[in-house]
Amino acid sequence: MTVTTALRFARREWGPLYADVRTALVARTWRAVPLTLVAVALTALFQAVQHQSWGHGPVHDIGFVRAEDPLWLSLLRTPLSLFVPALDLPVWGALAQVLLVFGVAEICVGRARTLMVAYVATLAGTLYARAGIALGPGGPLGLPASDAQVVDTGPSAAVVGLAVYVCRRYGAYWTGGLVVVAMVVEVFVKNNLAGKEHLAAIAAVLVLCALAHFSSRVGARSGVPSAVPFAVPSGVPSRTPSGARSGVPPITS
Questions:
Q1: What value does the mean pLDDT take over residues 220-241?
Q2: In contact, 78 and 123? CB cutoff 8 Å
Q3: Could you tell me which residues come within 8 angstroms of residue 134 by beta carbon, excluding any fewer than 6 positions away?
Q4: What does pTM read for this prediction?
Q5: Among 106, 212, 209, CA closest to 159
């Protein structure tokens, strides 16, 4: 692959995304990503508190999710569990993921959609853990009973889901495909609960994308605006012929 070909590919794959992110950051600086900054601050705060002798209990009570817990309690804790980094992983990795992926998503698809997609992806992983344990370890989707005691925290499922969603919205299919392949490889290499939850998060986001696409098609035919909150407005292409982003404002709330 020549340098010219590589540059052409980069412009086609990431050009519209880069243009929207750069425009928003130049125009509004940190004010373009308030949700992302709050998410980074919450993740850092929970990390600091849960490593204190007095803080582990409170963080456990509001943000730790396990499949063995009652479903209502897991659903209640799930929103905050997104910002509780895993105890056994470097927190800087989680902070970098949140800053980059949440920041790009907030600029490109808006704060409301970023929150909704992040929550759906995290919830999909949480619910999959229960379904996988019920199926048992015999099948490819099953999980061992011991995984019921594994603490399910951290922003990784939300980060993966948002990455796939933004790539789909901007037509960065090679990048989105690379994310999916990386998560599949993770399952084969580690074969742990986190890896399979990432795949569940991707599946949930792809379902959202399919519903949005179907709703947009139906709306375009009937002339009725789509009622799906994740849908691109009817008749609006992902990119204009020149490669610029079209129809999605760079900053929404």
A1: 49
A2: yes
A3: none
A4: 0.85
A5: 106
